[in-house]
Amino acid sequence: MKGTILIGKRLGAMALTLFLVSVIIFLMTQLLPGDVAVMFLGQYAFATEPELVICDEPTSALDVSVQASTLNLLMDLQEQFGASYLFISHDLSVVKYISDRIAVMYLGKFVEIGRVKDIFLPPYYPYTKALLSAVPVPDPEHRVEMIRLAGTIPSAKNPPSGCRFHTRCSEKMGKICEEEIPPLRRDDSNHEIYCHRTLKELGTSKSII
User: Fold this and answer.
1) Which contacts of 34-41 are long-range, i.e. CB under 8 A and separated by 24 or more positions?
2) Sign (positive/negative) of CA torsion 91, 93, 96, 101?
3) Tens digits of pLDDT across the chain (209 residues)
4) Of 40, 111, 90, which Cα lies nearest the Cα of 69?
């Protein structure tokens, strides 16, 4: 009985501590300027010297200057503590800046995995190609044709059969894409693409950026 009461007290204390920390973080992020709040959260995340830090859209809704300071802070903290990042973002220009390897997902499934330079050069998975076409290029003479995906995003709870991207893919091959799960294609550099098309066929695309 005493042991149960002691555990209950400890759990209560932990819950109160977590609640207070949540309140402090909320107030700090609401009252402080964006770059100061980011620095506070970054230092807080490394208080326990973690080996892995999950960064879920850390630069979303930030202006360019704050975004840059956030990325520089993350890289400084990584160098200081030697931690690894699982960096989640839809902005491939940001992902390219901070990552060693990239995994592209669509509806909860990996569709392409490789080193940064492999992801940014052909062969491309069709969804990766669309993401890359949305990356801003700071060169007015370099024009990138935006790839607009047709249709609506299917439900992740009830995904399409076969290749999950087939309902929006401009390179769909037919019933094989609708009915069969794509095979893994891998080259000598361990660049992996899950697609019914061969790497040679996918490699015919010109470089996007």
Assistant:
1) 34/62, 34/63, 34/66, 35/65, 35/66, 35/69, 35/70, 38/62, 38/66, 38/69, 38/70, 38/73, 39/69, 39/73
2) positive
3) 555 555 555 655 555 444 544 544 554 455 455 555 566 666 667 777 889 989 888 888 777 777 888 888 888 888 888 999 999 998 888 899 899 999 999 999 999 999 999 999 998 999 999 999 888 777 777 777 788 888 888 998 999 999 999 999 989 999 999 999 999 999 999 999 999 999 999 988 888 77
4) 40
